Amino acid sequence: MVAIVKNKAEKIPNKKQQECIDSIKGQYLVLAGPGSGKTYTVTKRIKNMIEQGIDPSKILCLTFSDAASAEMKSRVIKELNVADISVDIFTFHSFCNDLIAEFPLDFNLAADIKIITQPQYNQLLKECIEEINPIEYRNSKNDPYKMIKPIKDGIDEIQRYRLNKEKYFKNLETNPDYKPQIAILEEEIEKNKGDEKKYKKAFSSLEQLNKTIDKAVELFKFYELYQEKKEKNRLIDFADMIDFVIEKFETSPSFLNKIANKYEYIMVDEYQDTNTAQNKIIFSLVDNMTEKNVFVVGDDDQTIYTFQGAKLDTIERFIKHYPEVKIICLEENMRSTQNILDAARYVVVQDFSRLEANPEFKKYNISKELISKNPSLIDKNTPVILNKYLNQEQEYDDIVSQIEEIINSSSCPIYENGK
Question: Is the pTM of the predicted complex or chain greater than 0.85?
Answer without folding.
Answer: no
